[in-house]
Each structure stands twice: as C-alpha cells, then as structure tokens.
Amino acid sequence: MQNTIIVFLGIYFICFFGFAVVFRNFIVAKRTGVNAFKLNQKAGAESITGWYFKFLPLVSILVFILYSFLPNLYQSIGPIDLMNHAAIQWMGMGIMVVSLVWVLAAQSQMGASWRIGIDHDAKTAFVQKGLFKYSRNPIFVGVIFISFGFFLLLPNPITLTILALDIALIQIQVAMEEEYLTKQHGDSYSEYCQHVRRWL
C-alpha cells in the first residue's frame, strides 16, 4: 500500500499544481492580462491568510517527501497508527480525487473571475452558475475536503494541523471575500447570499 500511496500523491501533486494553479492562472492571464495571484496585497488578516496559503503547499509536500524518502523521520512526527488501514487510505484517495475534480469544475465555471486572494484592482464578474448555484464558495469546500482526504491518507499531527488551519483560516478568508463582494456587487450579492449557502 505504501508504494500505491507514494505514486498516487506524486501524480496528485503534479495534477493539482499543474491544472488548479499554473494552468488556471495561465488561462486567466491569457483572457485578462492579469496575474490571478493576489495574496498578501494588504496587511492584517488578509496578509496572515495569504502567507498561510503560500506556505501550506510546501508543508504538504514536505510530509509527502518524508513519507516517501525518509520513513524514519516520518515516523518521528507520530503517525496515527489506529487510522493506518487500507480502507481509510483508499477513502482518502477517493475524497482527494473527487475534490480535485470539484475544484477544477468550479474554477472553470468562474472563468476569468478566478483569483487566489482578493483582487482590489479590478471588479470581477459575479458568478452564479454551475456549482455556485449550490455553494457560495465551492472551491474552498473542495480545498477543505482535499485536506481531509490527505489526513485520512497520511494521518499524523501535521496533516491534522493542516486540516484544522484550513478550516479556521478559510473561514476568515471567506468572510473577507464576501465583505468585498458585497461592496462590489451590492444588493445582488446580498440577495444571492440569502438563497445560496456559504458552504453546501
């Protein structure tokens, strides 16, 4: 099972960063001439969440490297042995795959409005189609489930911390983004919030 997990995560990280980050940013830049990465544009809470979202992928990759190439060091971080069962690990992989497909679909539906962070320099289109008819923040929902699947796949204190921080800081990021969107789109966004759940 270990080799399966190593191969899966290697391919998964390539697909996630290749399609959900690099390719999506390329598409937005090609359509608008704008870099979609808008983290750390302001101080305060926005800066804190911005640094976290930059740092998180590095921590996740570090855990993968430890598990794959430095098993003794990986053991030192305290894997949760009670959860190291094939059924749980397969469930984790399934959740991660479905969540990535969900994220990619939501990104595609956002089109040129997609950003990482808050774009204070442009008024993006208000997207209400596709998954956004059922969730105001489908991409963040997908990211949380990716972290949950990653924890199931490699259960240890670090992946549990990543999951907990994801849930906490995404709440903060969403609150900031929804405040910004309310200012940008006014009553139409407020009415949308009354009819569509924040999550699911």
Automatic annotation (TrEMBL):
Alphabetized Pfam families for the sequence: PEMT
Membrane topology: Multi-pass membrane protein
Superkingdom as given in the UniProt entry: Bacteria
Presence of the UniProt keyword Protein biosynthesis in the record: no
Segments crossing the lipid bilayer: 6-27, 48-67, 87-105, 139-165
The keyword Transmembrane is annotated on this UniProt entry: yes
Record-linked InterPro entries: Phopholipid_MeTrfase
GO cellular component, one term: endomembrane system
Keywords linked to the UniProt accession: Membrane, Transmembrane, Transmembrane helix
MF GO annotations: transferase activity
UniProt-annotated location(s): Endomembrane system
Protein's name according to its UniProt entry: Isoprenylcysteine carboxylmethyltransferase family protein
Organism per entry: Marinagarivorans cellulosilyticus
Lineage, opening ranks: Bacteria, Pseudomonadati, Pseudomonadota, Gammaproteobacteria, Cellvibrionales
